[in-house]
Amino acid sequence: MTSLVLQFNNTIHPRFLRIAMSIKHAIQSGQLQPGETLPSTRLLAKQVNSHRHTVMTAYQELIAQGWLTSIERKAYQVNQDLPIENSQQSPNSVNPSAATFQWSLSPNVFTKATGQRHDKQPAHEFHYNFAGGQADLSLFPFQEFKTYLSDSLVRPDLTEFYYGKPAGTSLFIEQMTAYLRKARGIMNKDIIVVNGSQEALYLLSQVLLTPGDHVAVESLGYQPAWQAFQSAGAVLTPIKQHNKGIDIEALTTLVERQSIKLIYLTPLHQYPTTITLPIAERMAIYQLAAQHNIAIIEDDYDHEFHYDSQPPTPMASDDPQGLVIYLATFSKIMFPGGRLGFMAIDKTLTPALLHYRQIMNHKPNVLMQQAVGKWMQAGAFERHLRKMTKIYHQRRDHLVSLLNAYNLQSLKPVNFIVPAGGMALWLDVGDNAEALETYCDQNDIYLLSEKHFQLNPQKSVNHHVRIGFAGMSQEKLQQGLGIILNFIDSHPHSESMAASIVEHV
Ligand SMILES: Cc1ncc(COP(=O)(O)O)c(C=O)c1O
């Protein structure tokens, strides 16, 4: 240990005892842990402005009392056998009569973990991980990326490292602007970089919504986005879905009857059903939004991973009114721990968002943006995307062929639509979904059933599971799926395996 901050009680004399008592206090409060080495007498003496012999006497006193032990007369450490973890848990803490501080939390329900997705441990800790949107991090080119990261430090652009430039670094924004124009047809929008798209959802909620505003969301959808809207006091209104996407008639009735402030959509690979919203429906939704003065958030979270054709250009690419807010993330292209995402927005919205962002966080992490900017500039980013798209495509095809083979030989076929892209498949397992999820929990398999994606679970049936196929090798995918299909095969389910991929209110 190099430094130790001690709290002195100046009423204690002599000085060596004052030092000894403050170290004892640090041990009792958990600041110093059993087994931990103390600073050398020379160092501590310097820190507490005492003579080295005074500190040595303090240490000897604590050895005599049993708080410290000395290691071969060279170093001192806290007695390993002390039954102390920290003052919160120790009834013998410094002031046993002190009651725990009572926090007065804001009435905002989000100070509690309200229905936060589920109470499973993180998906990657399971042996088989069928989480829907998980990239295979073992295939990320960390070594290659390190070059761009270290280059950002070796040749730092100092203007970026100061405060200011709250939207993001020039290099990253330039690269992203060019990429969006060429690869996604998005132009004439401002880019604001965020620490992952969740931050954008929160920021947008705070800036656009007033308590009581209605936000229309897909009735099977992305709970973290819903919670961001709710944190600003919004009321969520479900949009009816069907096998091809959004029920336009129902949406039309909804916006005519109810004042809607915002529509949140995942048009490319609907979350969680993975359905690609057809062009005609996108246009119809845009027209409705324009007529009724509604903003659209288009969450395009895994754009590149589209297999059967080029991905359709985002709604934001044909947005004459500037009402589409486009969100994208690097959590699937790279890894969620990178916390990098951005929104492409109409210029008129930029000032409000930047003002608010600076209250939350002056600016997003510069180092990551610089490294990714250089990665893109070198063309290595697109190379990585091509490689991963190919691998995920193969994994999707493998999963589909395994399911088709199962359906050929089983009396209990499973119903699904081949996803045109994305990282998951929405599988209809009839009324087996609940039992299957429980079985998976018990067998080290991460799998979520439909109920976790429903806006109104009480009013909906639980008939589907989301099979993420991107995060595991083909062999592992096959093994894990084998266990799942064995379960389905050996368990009776309702006769009417749903003919629908989306089956809810
Ligand atoms: C619909 C949707 N949006 C966004 C994200 C990514 O969020 P973030 O960028 O905050 O990691 C995910 C990740 O699972 C998602 O499923």
TrEMBL record:
InterPro entries: Aminotransferase_I/II_large (IPR004839), HTH_trans_reg/aminotransferase (IPR051446), PyrdxlP-dep_Trfase (IPR015424), PyrdxlP-dep_Trfase_major (IPR015421), Tscrpt_reg_HTH_GntR (IPR000524), WH-like_DNA-bd_sf (IPR036388), WH_DNA-bd_sf (IPR036390). The keyword NAD does not apply. Pfam families: Aminotran_1_2 (PF00155), GntR (PF00392). The keyword RNA-binding does not apply. It comes from the Bacteria. GO terms for molecular function: transaminase activity. Residues 13-81 form the HTH gntR-type domain. Keywords: Aminotransferase, DNA-binding, Pyridoxal phosphate, Transcription, Transcription regulation, Transferase. In the C-terminal section; belongs to the class-I pyridoxal-phosphate-dependent aminotransferase family. This is PLP-dependent aminotransferase family protein. It comes from Shewanella surugensis.
